[in-house]
Amino acid sequence: MTIHIPSEGTWLKLNNERSGIWMVNVFNSSDIECVVKFQSSILKSILKGVPIALSVAVVEVEDQRFRFLGLIVYDDEAHPVVTTHPSRTVDEHDLLGKLFTQSSVKIHFFDEKSLPSFSMTCHLDLFDVQKVSDRLLITAPHYVGEITRLVLKGHDYIDQAFQQNNYLNVVFCEQIKINPENAEPVNVSESGKRIFRIDDSDEGLGFEQATLLPLEAVFRNNVFRSPMVRKGSIFRELTDFLMFSDTQVCLVEAKALAVLNSKKTNVTSKRVSAIDKDIKKAFRQLKGALRVLRSDGIIFDELGNTIDFTQDSSTIFHVIILLSEINPFLDRAELARELVSHSDVVNRIFFHILDLEELVQLVA
User: Fold this and answer.
1) What residues have CB less than 8 Å from 80, skipping those under 6 apart?
2) I want to staple 183 with a disulfide (CB 3.0 to 4.6 A). Which of 120, 124, 160, 246 is the partner?
3) 294: Cβ contacts below 8 Å, ≥ 6 apart
């Protein structure tokens, strides 16, 4: 398949934003396409066939009107996932106008590491397009200029509209139904490791592979996947990843929420329950791995070679539960209590819960 390579400007936006949607010109064509960034778990839901829609909104802040383009993913009907982006330049306004002259749009999806995942052609509901076009015409003129406090405030109003059904200062917010077809997943290979795709049925293995790049960016050659301990003649996995430097040791348990092969992740309560179960399991696994490490147990790599590293009373241990997503409906207060109860400041042991998106941002 043809892989979309973003322009330098779009690439910078991809790397600086946790999620987003941007319109782009197609080289040697009059067509307008879109670039979208989401977490891998959301991308899998889209690939699996959950309904999606474009959203166009106009928000009024202190007598100025701001346009926002968005993408809504109905992986849960009650709590859809939304990403929005302000349209604030003449070029962006023109691109949206040109987009509405098309019957379809090609959307290129990128994951939390800004790597290409898949592309698909999406047919637009022309009745919805005409309705939105009319509303934009009636509510003009729309803001053109730099990112300001007012733009950010407008973004807050859009978030409140989608998350809390609070449409204060929202002049209009309409959806354009889209009918996707012909998904084209991309083969991705990082650091010469195993090739994987967003539609890989082994979601756990794919998530571990996706985790390697940010870990290697920090610890270089001191990253060991699936380190092992030996009991008699039997080897067993200690944890998913072991990393170390001169002053720190890091343990990681990577937990991927099953999306492609599960019917239980399209309802928020079931999704939260599955993630919570993974977190509890990871706590148990990491506590056991930490005991082995601190008792100076011998650790082996995947090939059976001894992993040599030093630790003393000054060594800092970072113990990380890495999730494919941290659902906003998780009990964060309870998670905080768990992290505090398992951490030990005196012995320099610190537990963390991150998702891959946060790990990538920390590394960056």
Assistant:
1) 72, 73, 74, 162
2) 120
3) 311, 317
**Tens of pLDDT, residue by residue, the chain (364 residues):** 667 888 888 888 888 888 999 999 887 678 899 999 999 989 999 998 999 999 999 999 999 999 999 999 998 877 889 999 999 899 999 999 999 999 999 999 999 988 899 999 999 999 999 999 999 999 999 999 988 899 999 999 998 888 888 888 999 999 999 999 888 888 877 655 667 788 888 888 888 888 888 888 888 889 999 999 988 888 999 999 999 998 999 999 999 888 887 765 567 788 888 899 999 999 999 999 999 998 888 999 988 899 988 888 899 999 999 999 888 888 999 999 999 999 999 999 999 999 998 988 887 6
Separation of alpha carbons 73 and 79, rounded Å: 9
Instruction: At 260, list the tokens.
Output: 């492609």
- Lookup: tokens for 290: 């930490």
Token couple for 41: 């778990």
323: which strand partners? 255, 355
Q: What is the dihedral of CA 281, 285, 286, 291, to 10 degrees?
A: 140
Q: Using alpha carbons, select from 112, 116, 100 the residue that is nearest to residue 32.
A: 100
Per-residue HEC secondary structure of 254-270 comes to EECCCCCCCCCCCCHHH
- Token look-up 């319109």 returns 23
